[in-house]
Structures are given as structure tokens and as C-alpha cells.
Amino acid sequence: MHILATIVPAEINNVYVFLILGSLSAMLVAVAKAGFGGSIGMLAYPVMLYAFGGDAFLAAGTQLPLLIASDIPALVRWWRKWNGHAVRMLLPGALAGIGLAWWALWMLIGDGRTAEQVKVAKAQANGVLLLLVGVIALAFVSLQVIRYLRRRALAFRPVPWQGAVAGGLTGVCSMLANAGGPITTMFLLPQEMPKGMYVATTVLLYAVINEVKIAPFWHLGMMTPHTLWAGLLLLPAAVAGTFLGLYLHDRVGQKQFNGIAYSLLFLAGIDMVHKGVRILWFS
After folding, report:
1. Which pTM does this prediction carry?
2. Tens digits of per-residue pLDDT, 97-114?
3. Averaged pLDDT score across all residues of the chain
4. 3 state SS of 193
5. Residues 6 or more apart whose Cβ sits within 8 Å of residue 230
6. 3-class DSSP string for 109-142
7. Domain ranges within the chain, ordered by starting residue
8. Which of 82, 115, 124, 273 is the most buried (most CB within 10 A)?
């Protein structure tokens, strides 16, 4: 365990907690990509946050390589089963959103600042990210409850500006916290796609988005050699999650599987909002 402590980021206080929660997060990511779209995967980032003791930057940087690793088998499984029109509507806005979030973070923690200023800025940004992901999580769960109570899909056929807005928000949230899934889900689910097409569409969209994020993450210091080592330790869980997702896709009902995740996500969202508000209030 001493060897592990030397290769993972120094900010990780408890390697055992990191391995347990980080592996769970990696497995959730892979299960979502392989068989259930973005819904279950939304729970993965809050779990990774807990693995890192609430450090949003390192959690996002460690999770990104795992997302990319999970994209590859998911693309093979769902190749050409996606809705190309939906991807084309979302992708341009998503790329613009990534660029906007990159610029905003660079203005916050970039060059020309003292170590103390960077420390304070990162703490404030960390609070904002916690608050953002918490609010998104609660909003996403609320949406699912509303859809369940209505007992019918909110069918609509989006126009280009709606795709641009949803894509932009997806890109911003994905760049800030790997948390674009709920926005994408809110855009895609009401279109009443078949389950397989929905999963394939999210797989293709995020395969592109995740590759694009490598340069900004590295430039901002969110992804480092230490986070790559940390991600490598969690890779076996991601592989197991891929096989589990493929197995569960045709064997477990989406409603039952999502119900557990939504309940946990709701609790995690409340906790993250609380932590984010405390950080911003005291900073």
C-alpha cells in the first residue's frame, strides 16, 4: 500500500477509500456506457468526488481516462446504431461549450497568480463545481420523478437552436465536472428513441467530447501523470463494468436499475450542494 501511496495524487488521504469508491465509480461509468446510456453514469462523478475527498479538479482529471477507456468497447458494441441527426445537433454546441469552460477556468487559475491566489481560486472553483454538480443531480432526479408521475413521455422534435443550447450546456458541464449527462438525457429522452439507439447516441457523442477534453484537462493541470496512474489502478473495475453493462442491458429493466441510482444520486446531490455552499460561504 506504501507503493500505491507514492503513485497516486498526494491529495488522496486514504488510499483504501480511494480504491473502493474509485473502483465503484469506474464500474458505474462502464456499466452506463455499455448498456444504459448516461442515466446511471451520472452517479459515477459524485462517487469519484468522495474518493478524492471532494477535490473536484482531481476527480474529473482521474475520471476522464476511464471514460475514454470505456468509450472504446461501447463504440464497438453500439457501432452505427446511433441517431446521427441528434449527434449533429448537439456536437457543435458541445465543442463551443468546452472551449468556453476552458477559457473561464484558465482565467480563474491561469498564469500570473501567486500560489496562494491559485489555492484560493481553486477552492472557490471547487465549491462552484460541487454546487453545480449537486444542483444538476437534484434537477435530473426531479425530472425523472415528474416524468414518472405524468406516466408518459414528453415527446418533442427539437429544432436547431434547442440542440445548440443543449449541446452548449452539455459541453460546459462536461468540461467543468464530466457532468454533461443529465443535459444530454433531458434532450434525448423526450424524443422517444428506442433504448438501444439512445445508448448508442450517447456513446458516440461522449466518445468525441471526451477526446476533445484531453488537451484542456492537461493544460489546466486537472489531468497529470499522477491522475493517470490513479486511473490505471481503477481500470480493472472499468473492464468489469463493461461486461456487466452488456450482461444487464437485456436482463434488467431500465426502471428498476435506474431507481436505485436515482435514490443514491438524490442523496449525493444534497450532500454536494451542502458542501459547495459551505466552501463558497467560508472562502
Report:
1. 0.82
2. 999 999 988 887 766 666
3. 82
4. coil
5. 7, 8, 9, 12, 18, 22, 62
6. HCCCCCHHHHHHHHHHHHHHHHHHHHHHHHHHHH
7. 2-282
8. 82
